[in-house]
């Protein structure tokens, strides 16, 4: 099998998938294979892929199983193939959304970085935003606006895409360590994923979608794996829920209002699950002055303006015992202290 296994989870993604696959097969680095997991699409994804890219492996789910579980299926399949036919180098997994467009040297840059930095468990590149076509040209706008340069954590337990919404003026041209990488386009060592695996889960199935990348990044940090940002690995992203890292309360409210009820439910519930699974008393107590106002504000907003999302808290309580079990499995083999993790909160 090829050394790099590229995984795309598609759910009615025909608007984006053709450009994503074309950009993958135009890469200068060629030692890769592609797995597309069709999460119960109704727009002809499976037929189109078979007709236009017959070399792509397709897994077909009869319903939408979520980002996390579908990617777990792809990783498990790649692992089983590698066991039968080992690659020429250390196995690497590229998790990507269907609305990503890679520049031609993306894979080459990332593989070189992975080989040069064996301490890393995950790597990410620089993503810029793609906007809808302008009325003048009818072509998508490949912008100079940052989508993500990695994950950043605040003491309030706000988890953001670093640099999101900023104009790219070169402020993120320096490669280096980050807390973790965005699940929109994330490079992982198979060995790191195996270390973080719980039963058959790499990403947490219970998250379904949203913040599952933060959860995996946190686990990898606890287990002693570094994450690295590579500024020369450039890609573009049609992000459905546009957001910005630097925002006030008013902008945060406006951004939340345009998100779907499902996204708001998952985001609220998974925020709760993240803290149960990964946070520690020593860090929670140190950061209470930031956490309490943020979480109280979130709860009051949901209570007064978004009551349909209240069930997210009940679902978090329902899943709490399972999260505690998963937490114990990671903390039993942790390699980094609370102080090591605390340095990432800003």
UniProtKB/TrEMBL annotation:
<dbReference type="Pfam" id="PF00535">
    <property type="entry name" value="Glycos_transf_2"/>
</dbReference>
<protein>
    <recommendedName>
        <fullName>Glycosyltransferase 2-like domain-containing protein</fullName>
    </recommendedName>
</protein>
<dbReference type="GO" id="GO:0016757">
    <property type="term" value="F:glycosyltransferase activity"/>
</dbReference>
<comment type="similarity">
    <text>Belongs to the glycosyltransferase 2 family.</text>
</comment>
<dbReference type="InterPro" id="IPR029044">
    <property type="entry name" value="Nucleotide-diphossugar_trans"/>
</dbReference>
<feature type="domain" description="Glycosyltransferase 2-like">
    <location>
        <begin position="5"/>
        <end position="193"/>
    </location>
</feature>
<keyword id="KW-0808">Transferase</keyword>
<keyword id="KW-0328">Glycosyltransferase</keyword>
<dbReference type="InterPro" id="IPR001173">
    <property type="entry name" value="Glyco_trans_2-like"/>
</dbReference>
